[in-house]
Specification:
Length: 462
C-alpha cells in the first residue's frame, strides 16, 4: 500500500482526502503542520505528498523547498485555492509534480494521484535501466538456448520454482554458463514479472558501498550522505533481486542479509525504523559454498536460508550438444549486428569447436563468434577463422588418438594433417627448432621432417 502524506490546516479537507484515498486502497495519513510534514519526509518512507500552499502562518512553498532539500526525489502534489494559482506555478518550478485547485472532485483527486504514482514507478524503472538490469533484446544475454538433457532439467526447475513467487533460489555453476539467464527466466515466468528485476554483483563493490547500495541510507548517515538514498531492496519491492557472486559478500553483510531473509524487513543506514519489503531473493555463485563453510568465509545459517531451491547450471563441456544451436543463434545475431553475411560453419571448424573444452563456457563461445564476425567476411566459418587456443586445445579427458567420428563424418586428410602439424610444432618448440633433435624425438628421417615443415609453413632454424 502506497503511503500518502496529506498536509493541510483544514480538518475537513484532510478527512475528505483520507476517505477518498482509503477507498482506492492507499494508506493515507495527515498533519496540519509543515514542520511535522518535513520531519515525516526525513524519517519515513513516503510515496506521495499532498501539500496545501496555504498552511496558516506557514508557506507551502517553504515546506516544499525543505522537503526537496531532504529528498530531491520526493513526489508532491500542490493543493491550491483560486487566488494562488501563480504560487502553484512557482511550486512546479521548485519541483512539484502537479497542482489541483480547491474545491476539487473525488474523481480528479483519484486521477492525479494515480498518474503521480505511475510516474514514480517509471522513475524507478529508468533507474533500473541505467544500472543495466535490462539487457539488449535478443543479445544472447537474456535468451537461453539449447535442448540438452542437462539444460532441459534446468528448464524444468525454473518452471516449477517460478510458480511460487516467494521461494528463495540459489544458482550454482562455473563462471559463464548462464546463471544470470536462469535468474531472469525465474522472474519473467513468475507472478512478479510486472515488477522490477534488479541485479547486483556482490563481488564488484567494497563492503561499505555494497551495504548502501543494498539497504540505502538516510541523509547525514555518513560524511557524504547529503541526500536520502533508496536501496536496491526497496527498489525491487514486489519483484526480484538477483545477488550475483553471493560467495564474495563480506561476513558482516551476510548477517544483515540473513536478517532480511528471516524478517522481510530492512533498515536504511542511519535510519531508525524498519521497512517492510516483499522481494524474492535469487542468489548465484561460482564458488563451492560448502567448502567456503569449512573455511569460515561463509555463514552456515545463511547458506541454508539461501539453499531453499538449488539450481545447478552445468558447464558447456558437459552439454556439447548445445554448441550447434548456440553457434547458430550467436552467428545470426552478430552477423546482423555487424552487417555481415556469415551464415554457416564448416564441418572441420565445427569439429574443432565441439572438441574444445570451453573453460569460459557460453560467454566464451559468444565472444569467439563476435570476434569472428568482426574480423571475417566469408559466408562460412572455417578452421582458419578460429582463435589459436581452439586449434591447439586437446580435451583433457581423452587422448588425441581416441578421436570419435561424428555421425555426419569427417574430412580425413584435413584432420590427420592438423594432428601431424600440431605434433611437429610441439616437437620444434621443445628442441628450439633444432632439426636433428626434432627428427630424433619424432622418429622421422630429417628429409621427411624438412618436407613436412615446409608443407605446413613451420620455419626451420637449424
Amino acid at each position: 500500500m502506497e503511503r500518502i502524506l496529506i498536509v493541510d490546516d483544514e480538518a475537513f479537507i484532510r478527512e475528505n482526502l483520507e476517505r477518498i484515498l482509503e477507498e482506492d486502497g492507499y494508506h493515507p495519513y495527515s498533519t496540519d503542520n509543515g514542520d511535522d510534514a518535513v520531519k515525516e519526509v526525513s524519517e519515513a518512507d513516503v510515496d506521495l505528498v499532498l501539500l496545501d500552499l496555504n498552511l496558516g502562518s506557514q508557506s507551502g512553498l517553504n515546506v516544499l523547498r525543505a522537503m526537496r532539500e531532504i529528498d530531491p526525489g520526493v513526489l508532491v502534489i500542490i493543493i491550491t485555492g483560486y487566488g494562488t494559482v501563480e504560487s502553484a506555478v512557482e511550486a512546479l518550478k521548485l519541483g512539484a509534480y502537479d497542482y489541483i485547485k480547491k474545491p476539487f472532485k473525488a474523481d480528479a483527486i483519484r486521477l492525479i494521484v494515480r498518474l503521480a504514482l505511475e510516474t514514480q514507478n517509471l522513475r524507478r524503472e529508468v533507474r533500473q535501466l541505467r544500472r543495466g538490469s535490462q539487457t539488449r533484446e535478443l543479445s544472447g544475454d537474456n535468451v537461453m538456448v539449447g535442448s540438452s538433457e542437462q539444460l532441459t532439467q534446468v528448464y524444468r526447475q525454473i518452471r516449477e520454482v517460478a510458480k511460487h513467487g516467494t521461494s528463495t533460489v540459489l544458482i550454482t555453476g562455473e563462471s559463464g554458463p548462464g546463471k544470470e539467464l536462469v535468474a531472469k527466466a525465474i522472474h519473467q515466468m513468475s507472478p512478479r514479472k510486472e515488477r522490477p528485476f534488479i541485479e547486483i554483483n556482490c563481488g564488484s563493490l567494497p563492503f561499505n558501498l555494497l551495504e548502501t547500495e543494498l539497504f540505502g541510507h538516510e541523509r547525514g548517515a555518513f560524511t557524504d550522505a547529503k541526500n536520502r538514498k533508496i536501496g536496491l531492496f526497496e527498489e525491487a519491492n514486489g519483484g526480484t533481486i538477483f545477488l550475483d557472486e553471493i560467495g564474495e559478500m563480506d561476513l558482516s553483510l551476510q548477517v544483515k542479509l540473513l536478517r532480511v531473509l528471516e524478517d522481510r524487513k530492512i533498515r536504511r543506514l542511519g535510519g531508525n525504523r524498519n521497512i517492510d519489503i516483499d522481494v524474492r531473493i535469487v542468489a548465484a555463485t561460482n564458488l563451492d559454498l560448502k567448502e567456503a563453510l569449512e573455511q569460515k568465509i561463509f555463514r552456515e545459517d545463511l547458506f541454508y536460508r539461501l539453499n531453499v531451491f538449488p539450481i545447478h547450471v552445468p558447464p558447456l563441456r558437459d552439454r556439447r550438444e548445445d554448441i550447434p544451436p548456440l553457434l547458430e543463434f550467436f552467428i545470426k545475431y552478430y552477423s546482423e549486428e555487424f552487417n555481415k553475411n556469415i551464415c554457416d560453419v564448416s564441418r572441420a571448424a565445427l569439429d574443432l569447436l565441439m572438441r574444445y573444452h570451453w573453460p569460459g563456457n557460453v560467454r566464451e563461445l559468444r565472444n569467439v563468434v563476435e570476434r569472428i564476425c568482426i574480423m571475417h567476411n566469408q559466408e562460412t566459418i572455417t578452421p582458419e577463422c578460429l582463435p589459436r587456443e581452439i586449434w591447439g586445445d586437446k580435451p583433457q579427458d581423452e587422448a588425441a588418438f581416441n578421436y570419435r567420428i561424428p555421425p555426419e563424418g569427417i574430412l580425413f586428410e584435413e584432420i590427420v594433417g592438423r594432428l601431424e602439424k600440431d605434433l611437429i610444432a610441439q616437437a620444434v618448440a621443445i628442441t628450439g627448432g633444432n632439426v636433428a633433435k626434432t627428427a630424433r624425438i619424432l622418429n622421422l628421417p630429417r628429409g621427411t621432417l624438412r618436407y613436412k615443415m615446409g608443407k605446413y609453413g613451420l620455419i626451420e632454424i637449424s
